Known about the structure:
By secondary structure, the chain is an alpha/beta fold. It has 3 domains: 7-43 and 62-81 and 241-323 and 469-523, 3-Layer(bba) Sandwich (FAD/NAD(P)-binding domain), CATH 3.50.50.60; 115-226, no CATH class; 326-459, Guanine Nucleotide Dissociation Inhibitor, domain 2 (2-Layer Sandwich). Helices cover 35% and strands 19% of the residues. The chain has helices spanning 14-25, 66-71, 104-112, 116-140, 151-165, 169-178, 183-188, 194-205, 217-223, 244-256, 299-305, 314-321, 364-377, 418-434, 440-443, 452-459, 511-523, and strands spanning 7-10, 30-33, 45-49, 52-55, 81-83, 88-92, 96-100, 228-229, 232-233, 237-239, 260-262, 267-273, 276-282, 287-288, 292-295, 329-336, 357-360, 379-388, 403-412, 444-450, 495-497. The strands form 6 sheets. It has a 7-stranded mixed sheet. Strands 11-2-1-15-21 form a 5-stranded parallel sheet, with helices on one face. Strand 13 and strand 14 form a beta hairpin. Helix 3 (104-112) runs antiparallel to helix 4. The longest helix has 25 residues, at 116-140. The protein is globular, with a radius of gyration of 22 Å.
Amino acid sequence: MSENIDIVIIGGGHNGLVCACYLARAGLKVQILEKRSLVGGAAVTEEFHPGFRNSIASYTVSLLHPKIIKELHLHEHGLQILLRPQANTFLLDNNQALFFHNDLEATQKSFANFSQADADALPAYYASLESIADILRSELLKTPPQLRGDIKNLAHWGQLLLQTAKLPKSSRQLLASIFSQSASSFLSQWFEHEAIQAAFAFDSVVGNYAAPSSPGSAYVLLHHVMGEVAGRKGAWGHAVGGMGAITQAMLAEARALGVKVDTSCAVRKLEVKNKRVTQIVLENGDSLHAKRVVANVGPRLLFLNMMDEHALPANFVRRMQHYRCGSGTFRMNIALESLPDFKFKPGNHQEQHHQSGIVLAPSLEYMEKAWLDAQRTGWSEQPIIEMLIPSTVDSSLAPEGKHVASLFCQQFQPQLDWNQYREAAADTIIATLNQYAPNLEESIIARQVLSPLDLEEKFGLINGDIFHGALSLDQLWLNRPLSGFANYRTPIDNLYLCGAGTHPGGGVSGVPGHNAAQEILKDI
């Protein structure tokens, strides 16, 4: 099955596809093993009800790196990405809404309805974030430096210090504090109105099982603004045909480069001898061999579920057992007879807000309570929800006149018995949204429910963690997944990592796959 194969990649998600393309382009013979019947990992488009298709897990575009789009010819393979006509709509109490536009002045005008001081502060806030985001962007396509004194690492550290020294003093202070600061503390330094603070704080809990008051949550806010769409930094967009259009374009490039792709081909375990993978054992009992193996699965899944711990250093296993996974994310896809009729602007005919991200997180207090509820009862009584209705910009996803919506919800305890509580939690989500759009529940034709357990079983996301591991200071950059192993290598000589559990983390960026390929090529 693997005759003359140089590299086997476990997992056909977007990072595995990216890694395969760069390795194949260098002349290597590459084979991808994907357990599902289609490649794409969590970035896939599927029909969840007859006639209704949606991006069933990952659901929006921003972090996909322009270099990867260009070098893998994704547009030539049919990928089309549309900028959201309106960025975000935040649902508030008292039938109000706060709007974020693609235009700064328009957003300031929206802010001024709540606080003129906050409207005036917005340009400086964006500029401050951008100044440090640019430093982090410059590190995206680089392997993190190691904590040792060789020339290469010293040069990397020196370059970073030089970049930081050029920043204004206020930006240097921000950079020094944002990794450990809470989102609520950080945002209170900039804005006074609770709705505006909450709107920005939403990004701090996306995929992060924590409250806005949790130390380190400010960085997660920053992680979500590092992308771009159509040259607009921090913008969000829609892939026509859904997120599967991205991975299908990557698959087309991989096949053009000669990559062998096997679907419905689950890996059970890796056999290791003398610090080398000697056999890849499949679920059907077959086994194969390659000179090098690249894992596009989460670190905990790989090292604790797919390998004998005795093959790994005891200290490494102990550290990996404490690697934190679990984003508290709950996903739903719903088929709709008609568009939601929101109280802040009655009418279910299509408006600009229907084409934006529609977020329910009206205050920091609301978000804190959602977190506390999850600790106490398993999920929040009033969850944090983002609704996206992609059929408003992409008619290919639903029958004429009907719609599909993604519901991306936070604060659901990862370890709960979701086989027992799945539908009850889904009912809570719909009932909560129905308070703001009273026609929603009666408009639902069908729904697909993906609890943290379903995300783990369907996509291999341990505890439903969309990032393959928490984005906290101890698990970022040169600590991702563990300090000493941030260079996409592992304690096993011919085994590498290329997934979201490596630098720079989660999101559909392709960067971990790109960076891993460069390190593998160095070794070869």
